[in-house]
Protein: Sulfate permease
Amino acid sequence: MFRLIWAVSVRTRYFLRRYMPTNMLLDAIRTRRGLRWGVPAMVLAIPYLYAASICAQLAEDGGPGWLHLLVMLFVWNALKFAFIGSISLVLLIRVCLREVSCSRRAVDVGAAQ
Structure:
């Protein structure tokens, strides 16, 4: 039973990482070229929070109960985009510092020869 649950969870994670648009965008941001787009991607959290607010209000006013699932989905996506901005900023600074130190070492080695 544990093996079946494990296999289903692995396949579900693979499907979500591969085909869901927000996960595809977050994977693109985590690349070296995409790190600079992390902070502007934080702006995408605003429409998600607005959509969550609208769905919550509709559900509260007597709408169908499945709108609560959309509220959770929108809030989750907003949190993902809000956090990727700060994380990508830290990663970008770390990569830039590493590139500067490598270029300095290359200059030092070239000057020594």
